[in-house]
Amino acid sequence: MTRWVDVVNFNADASCLDTARWLRALEGGGESEFCRWLRLYVESGRRTVLGLTGATIADVAIHNPEARDIIRGNPEIFEAVVRPFSHDIALIRGARGFSLNLELGARSIGETFSRVSRFYLPPEFMLSNEQVAILAASGYAGIFVNASRLASDMRARVPDRPYHVRGLGGTRMPCLPVRGRLTDAYLDALHRYDPESWNEALRGCGAGTVVCWRDGESAFLLPDGLERERHWLAGECYGERVFLSHIDSEYLAPESLSSGHLQSYPVHSFLAWMKEFRMMGYLGRLHRIETGPHAFSTEQLVLWLQAINSDVMSAVEKRSPQIAILPSVDADAEITHTLFRSERGFEGEECLSLLERSLDGDVEAFERFLARDEPLSRKVRGRHEYLRLLAARRT
Questions:
Q1: Which of 81, 211, 245, 302 is the most buried (most CB within 10 A)?
Q2: pLDDT value of position 395
Q3: C-beta separation of 88 from 108 below 8 A
Q4: Which of 269, 200, 274, 209 is nearest to 238 (CA)?
Q5: d(CA 262, CA 157)
Q6: What's the whole-number mean pLDDT along residues 180-189?
Q7: Buried (b) or exposed (e) across 290-304, using 16+ Cβ within 10 A?
Q8: Residue 107 and residue 110: Cα distance in Å, rounded?
């Protein structure tokens, strides 16, 4: 039988998840959409490894604490992996910025989950080998790699068994490969109300333990998304869901890999995030701030975390996906559904401008921004409050 780990990336700042739409998903207390999504797993008894970014946790803590209670109260259902606070593109972060984002995310997760695995799930499966060394030195248990996200000539060079990847300075880090075809099978199950395609994909994995990676925001982006996810879970009938803490993998040492295998972490293409280079000036401004001599105040920190989010660039550089879906479980024909990119680029630009003004001594601009009654201000206001609480608990 196949044992499998369901690793769910959940990024509240996903480029197709409009800020107002996300905040609506948190409304309603214990009957919010987000709570109902979590209860799908509790009621069906399906173990899930949640990869919530720290920013997502901040939103939940401030706007929907009942959801946090569901997570904490069901450690037999929910395990967590470590994420950064902001869903960043780590390849453009230096060691200081990466470490700060990582620390804030790890603390948020540790205060929310009863069961936490020390595996780190990198946003977009992007890591530099310096960052692999940082994770190893910080005592993390391992990382994930997804060969299906790489160019075809690179995929075969990534081992399909657990292995140790090299980091700088002679460090090593356990690395778990993700089965990319399971992601596609999950999406097929949602888009077409077809859980059998999912079961068939699991059967094709054979005996042993495999790791599935998928985005959790799909349930909030598709029409009747919660019902689609419920239908998938109800039809799932193959394999055994397990936590990361339940598996005991043997990791191949770098010297035991074949000559064609990569021993270091594969460098992910940056092309999709800089397709037309519209964000070059934006990135230059961020780089100057990160490499400056200043220490961030809490106000500046929350703005920086908003500005570095990868989906600022995704929303600007990537086209809106068009997908074929069945409009209902008993429909005969598919329709085309467009997942429009949000205005995350505008949001990032506003936060970066406010950050630069704050660093120049203008603190009133941020106060005026927080006082506005609009979705972005509400979201940043809540995250600012959460970071202040996080800092207070540390002291």
A1: 302
A2: 60
A3: no
A4: 200
A5: 6
A6: 94
A7: beeeeebeebbbbbb
A8: 5
